[in-house]
Amino acid sequence: MPRLKVILLSLATLCAPVALAQTANPAVPGTINYVEGSASINGGPLNQQSVGYAQLQPGQVLQTVNGRAELLLTPGVFLRVGENSAVRMISPNLLNTQIALDHGRADIEVDEIHPHNDIQVSEEGANTRLLKDGLYAFDADKGTVRVFKGEAELLQQTGSGQKGLKVKGDHQVGLTGNEAIQSVSFDRGQAEDPLYNWSSLRSQYLAEANLNLASEYAGYGVMAPGWYWDAGFWGYTWLPGDGLLWSPFGWGFYSPRYIFYGGPVFYGNRAYGARGYAQFRGEGFSGGGVHATGGGSHGR
Predict the structure, then answer these.
(1) What's the rounded Cα separation, in Å, for the pair 271 and 291?
(2) Cβ count within 10 A of residue 53
(3) Confidence check: pLDDT of 247 > 50
(4) Pairing of the two strands 126-130 and 97-103
(5) Which pTM was predicted?
(6) Contact at 8 Å (CB) between 106 and 80?
């Protein structure tokens, strides 16, 4: 009997992550992860039931009216489309992910990017490649590309080929007009508009879902980084393969391994161990907002 219990327990341990992950289609670049208000793909309306199932295919257009939508790109990268905007999928390939902003606004939160990722946004005939973790804002109506945090490369076609212009944090470029394109600073306070605030709130919710899943998966062994479905959250969140990473808004994304080995959980400007954090929240170790005042990478 003890041997049978061990076998059954081992099978349950192996199957639990699979069971949790099989409540939606496998996430790929272009998967709809949240819908608010009026949004559609090629005229077909989207709603919250589309989350985890609807995918923006090459050539298709995601359009919002009085609404917003969130799409998954590569693991750890979220595309958020503002009101009265249209985004077209060019390439959903994991190694070559490219979208076009036809009109309106879009923000991209990059929590983790790898050297082999090639994520590009086309706007006003120019392509912008995202190079580092950070937050990027695109406005096709005003013809601007803003880097709140991180680094991007604006790819320009010249007579001799392609030329790259680096755009660092707190800088922007204008794509319209007759003047030469150059990187200039901008006022972050004035740039933090409703789409920025909505992106920040979405990042907080995703971090809460991350902590829920990281706690549930802790102890299941080595897990690949990627998108993981949270049925309670009704959407995908992102789990790093190891350590603790920060969103550009300062929210923590925890790996199950980090939780399993007792890494501190940050709330405000304080750090808690797993047991201490649970006592602080007055609950078992699952859920709760996780916000960090710092940035960088921890426990990797």
Answers:
(1) 10
(2) 11
(3) yes
(4) unpaired
(5) 0.83
(6) yes
User: Is residue 259 within 8 Å of residue 213, measured between CB atoms?
Assistant: no
Q: How far is CA 189 from CA 33, 73, 105, 201, 222, in A?
A: 28, 27, 18, 17, 42
- Give the mean pLDDT of 97-101: 98
> Using an 8 Å Cβ cutoff, are 153 and 171 in contact?
no
Is the predicted pLDDT of residue 39 greater than 70, yes or no?
A: yes
Rounded-to-5 percentages of helix, strand, coil across the chain:
20, 40, 35
Q: Which stretches of 58-147 are DSSP H helices?
A: none
- What count of Cα atoms within 13 Å lies in the side-chain half-sphere of residue 155? 14
Q: Are the beta carbons of 104 and 141 closer than 8 angstroms?
A: yes
Q: Which amino acid is at 248?
A: P
Rounded Cα–Cα distance for residues 166 and 164 (Å): 6
